[in-house]
Amino acid sequence: MKYIRKFPSPESFEDWKRRHPGADWHELSLPHNAPVKDDLADSLRSEQGRICCYCEKRLTRRRSHIEHIKPRSVFPDGILSYSNLAASCNGGPARQTASCGHKKGAWYSPRFVSPHNKSCQHRFLVTASGEMAPRNPSDSNATETIRRLGLNTPDLCAMRRSVYNVLLELKATLPAAQFEKHVENSLLPDGNGLFEPFWSTIEYVGTMLSLDGLELPEKLPLVKKSKKRRHR
């Protein structure tokens, strides 16, 4: 999960809030306010380099939505707070491919690993099969976040696995210094401010492959459950 560095809130959005004190999300979503909401969505996608705040797929206008990190139904005070907003993909159409904002729904917990928290970039790893897992097997918060966001759907795992395979091939064909430079450049935004999809996969896998002798686990690490003692 890539950490999102927030941009300043768009002026059109802040001006609209000043002119509509006490307004809610429903009012912002009315047809005559579409230009303001479109500016807001564009700003969120841009600050994320056009990748989903959760899974990091490429975002488009038609296949994304404005996500409330803390849900509207649970945190009404944050409905129009720019610091609580992000851009999420719409996930897959079927139940087994549902992910990200639509999968998360109205769920929220202090256990949630948010892309607005700097630590998020160091909480997850990617296996050779494309699955996400907590870097620390005992990090139950990261495990719960993966489950609640549906980040291990078959399609997402396949996409991450493709990124892994490309990096593996480059590692085998490029000199070490050139491979490291390729990974470094892949993590930078391009001339249009776009980040590569699955940025965190590139960052983690690229780093692991750059360190001679280190390999990615093929499958998710198993977390040992402690046995509960029976009280007599």
Give an overview of the whole structure.
Strand 3 (124-126) and strand 4 form a beta hairpin. The longest helix is centred in the C-terminal third of the chain and has 20 residues, at 154-173. The chain has helices at residues 11-19, 25-28, 34-47, 100-104, 140-149, 154-173, 176-186, 199-210, and strands at 64-68, 85-89, 124-126, 132-134. The relative contact order is 0.13. Helices cover 37% and strands 7% of the residues. The chain has 232 residues and is mainly α. The protein has a two-stranded antiparallel sheet. It has a two-stranded antiparallel ribbon with strand order 3-4. The model is unreliable at 220-232 (pLDDT under 50).
Unreliably modeled segments: 220-232
Shape: globular
Largest sheet: 2 strands, antiparallel
Q: What's the number of helices?
A: 8
Strand content: 5-15%
Instruction: Tally the beta strands.
Output: 4
Distance linking N and C termini: 45 Å
Instruction: Estimate the helix proportion, in percent.
Output: 25-40%
Tell me the series of helices and strands, N- to C-terminal: HHHEEHEEHHHH
The rounded Rg comes to: 20 Å
Sequence of strands across the biggest β-sheet: 1-2
Query: Structural class of the secondary elements?
Result: mainly alpha
Q: Residue-averaged pLDDT, rounded?
A: 91
Task: Give a concise summary.
The chain is mainly alpha-helical and 232 residues long. Helix content is 37%, strand content 7%.
Blueprint (SSEs and pairs):
Layout lengths: L10 H9 L5 H4 L5 H14 L16 E5 L16 E5 L10 H5 L19 E3 L5 E3 L5 H10 L4 H20 L2 H11 L12 H12 L22
Antiparallel strand pairs: 1-2, 3-4
